[in-house]
Amino acid sequence: MFGKILIANRGEIAVRVIKTCRRMGIKTVVVYSDADAGSKAVEMADEAVHIGGSPAAESYLVMDKIIDAVKQTGAEAVHPGFGFLSENPAFAKRLEDENIAFIGPNVNAIEAMGDKISSKKLAAEAGVSTVPGHMGLITDTAEAIQVSRDIGYPIMIKASAGGGGKGIRIAYNDQDVEEGFQAVKAEAAASFGDDRIFIEKFILQPRHIEIQVMGDKHGNCVYLFERECSIQRRNQKVLEEAPSPLLDEATRNKMGEQAVALAKAVQYDSAGTVEFVASGENKSFYFLEMNTRLQVEHPVTEMITGVDLVEQMLRSAAGEKLTIDQAGLKINGWAIESRVYAEDPYRNFLPSIGRLKRFSPPKEGELEGGTVRIDSGVREGDEISMFYDPMIAKLVTHGKDRDEALDTQAKALDRFYIDGIRDNIPFCAAVMDDSRFRSGNITTAYIKEEFPNGFSGTVATAEQELLLISVVAYIHSLQRARAALISDRIVADIAPRTDWVVVLGSDYHPVHIEINDGVASLTVDGTSHELKTSWQPGQHLVEGVLDGQPFAVKFEDRTEGYMMRHRGVSLRVLVCREEVAELHRRLPEKEKPDLSKLIISPMPGLVVSVDVEVGQEVQEGEAVCIVEAMKMQNTIRAEAVGRVKAINVEGGESVAADQIMVEFE
Ligand code: ADP
Ligand code: ADP
Ligand code: MG
User: What total number of domains does the chain contain?
Assistant: First the structure.
């Protein structure tokens, strides 16, 4: 086994690899860019080498710098993580030439699978079921239309070099192909420098189901069952689970055997993933592509199989035999992962950048029967920059069955507190509580279908309202009691009291509360309840038991009232004396400031384009400009109809958060 390896990556995956190396007694080196100096991975590694500027093109993507770092530190092998150079055959080849082990598959396997059309041909030859379609490349629109008609609509136009959801388009008729063919070709040329296109049938009720494979250099290869990743937004996976609610034993084994057949066809000798699209209609499944690296969502597989995939990768790369065999692999329970993204679900999932004022994940280990695992590359106080992927943590939970895994996930999300930036935790929690998701009847269109107008939080159920009212009454009473102790001027407003009115939206709830040593007796809207908690002022998470039911609620103080969060619910709540409540009842709703006349950059980034001109009339919802941050192009839209008065930025320019980009008359 290696004595020292280098990790050519950053963030949570670098931390993840370090953890296994520590357990195996292997020393680690990480490389880091300017933005990552002092990161959690740098702190945890035995050695760290600075390799350049924050943009990946100046650091994590520069092969020479990584190879220099290997030589400088005497590392024997390189783990590439995912993204960056992980699927770059030229990088694997360079390492081979330099006699440095690559903790990934052989160069030929990466090359063979790097291209969708050639890998599809290879798969078909290996007896793997492929999407019906045309196996050749298509050069012009007329041919594309002919091929599409032959296949039968709907069809998918795909870039052979595509990846990360780019270079893909569905077409339902000739006209869609007419428009889509050139668009995909242009996008492929721009993104991958390769505009080869093919066309295949669009599988109805598509579900993304992938098989984890693991091979060694001795001809052994096993499958570690499937993961379902159908919950995607703009082709980005958000939630992943294992096993899949769709598969039965027979289908699972068939997919696994086909995945292994394909892997063996290229002497696959590391961890890899064979992606399939399966039809929810009839469980038929078809090969999509093979990812020749560790996958972001590998922890769900580890949770149900008990196998450490990074350990197996290290062993294979060192020439050892797999320590697992097919007969010994069993599925134990169910696991689900939420990708926690730095983004604002309430504002169309715009990337969110800034300092993590608070970052407090739930405890790892047991949670009410289930199990929690956190894979994260950040700490409280860290800066989330615009340079990299917006994923800051993965929250993985395991249970004896799907319901328990999902229940545990929901409870763990309730206990994950982040402040300083926005996060998608309320969105993930809303999905956990959604009846369609719970039923397992999902497809890749789930988010689009269930949240057609974006996410605006879920509506609190009567039980959730009672919980929020009880909790807010508790914290408010205790905070006031503390304030009264500290202040010797007991003014009416801060005097300890037992009767309050909790204002939720336009509803007024009278509450009577008496607290004794962490136990509160409450009367809410005339009914009695008991709340127990060890919460102390200063904490932002309230954990406790209400009428025998365990709960966790997050809250923040606001100038007026509190922001309360639980599952997908986010509510502004006011607690006041009856006299003050009476005043509020009479007060008209405060007007929001009118920002519709300005287009403000929601984050620091790079202006890709401004799509309007001075004097132009713009409709509500129309695209005004595109700002790129965290690898994503974000379309900024007009909030109201208006005529453009001034444009303050141009394409190629950097913008700061809250900078005024366009003004309307
Ligand atoms: P999957 O692994 O399931 O295919 P993705 O395609 O989203 O999911 O994962 C690969 C992507 O992960 C890369 O394209 C890259 O943007 C992103 N990535 C690379 N390094 C990291 C990292 N350290 N932390 C989080 N994301 C990363
Ligand atoms: P990428 O390299 O961007 O990951 P994939 O070929 O894996 O591209 O496709 C991305 C997603 O598009 C898949 O997860 C799947 O949901 C969907 N998809 C791809 N091909 C088809 C198809 N033929 N029919 C239906 N959905 C498809
Ligand atoms: Mg894919």
Answer: 4
Give the whole-angstrom CA distance, residue 371 versus residue 367. 6
What pTM did the predictor assign? 0.88
Range(s) of the domain holding residue 63: 4-103
Distance CA 160, CA 9 (A): 26
521-537 pLDDT, tens digit per residue, is 999 999 999 999 999 99
Last residue of a domain, one of 202, 237, 255: 202
In terms of C-beta density within 10 A (0-12 exposed, 13-18 middle, 19 or more buried), how is residue 66 classed?
buried
**Measured from the CB, is residue 391 less than 6 Å from ligand 1?**
yes
Residue 495 has pLDDT above 70, yes or no: no
Name the residue among 591, 87, 523 with its Cα closest to residue 290. Answer: 87
Last residue of one domain, picked from the residues 147, 181, 202: 202
Torsion, CA 258, CA 262, CA 268, CA 270, rounded to 10: -40
495 in any annotated domain: yes
Closest CA to 87 of 29, 9, 33: 9
276 CB near ligand 2 (under 6 Å)? no
Q: Would you place residue 574 in the very low, low, confident or very high pLDDT band (cuts 50, 70, 90)?
A: very high
Q: Which two tokens stand for residue 213?
A: 């494979």
Cα 13 to middle of ligand 3, angstroms? 19
Clarify whether residues 96 and 155 are in a common domain: no
DSSP for 617-651, written as a single string = EE-TT-EEEEEEETTEEEEEE-SS-EEEEEE---T
**Does residue 440 lie in a domain region?**
no
The closest ligand to the CA of 164 turns out to be 2
On whether both 562 and 466 belong to a single domain, the answer is yes
What Å distances lie between residue 401 and 216, 374, 407, 440, 576, CA to CA?
31, 20, 10, 13, 44
Q: Is there a contact between 283 and 267 (Cβ–Cβ < 8 Å)?
A: no
Q: Which residues contact 93 (CB under 8 A, 6 or more apart)?
A: 107
Q: Which of 153, 240, 288 to mutate to test the pocket of ligand 2 (most atoms within 8 A of CB)?
A: 288
H/E run at residue 160: strand 155-163
Running DSSP on this structure, what letter comes out for residue 41?
A: H
Q: So what's the pLDDT on residue 54?
A: 96
Considering the domain architecture, whether residues 492 and 539 belong to the same structural domain is answered as yes
Examine the domain organization and report whether 575 and 480 are in the same domain: yes
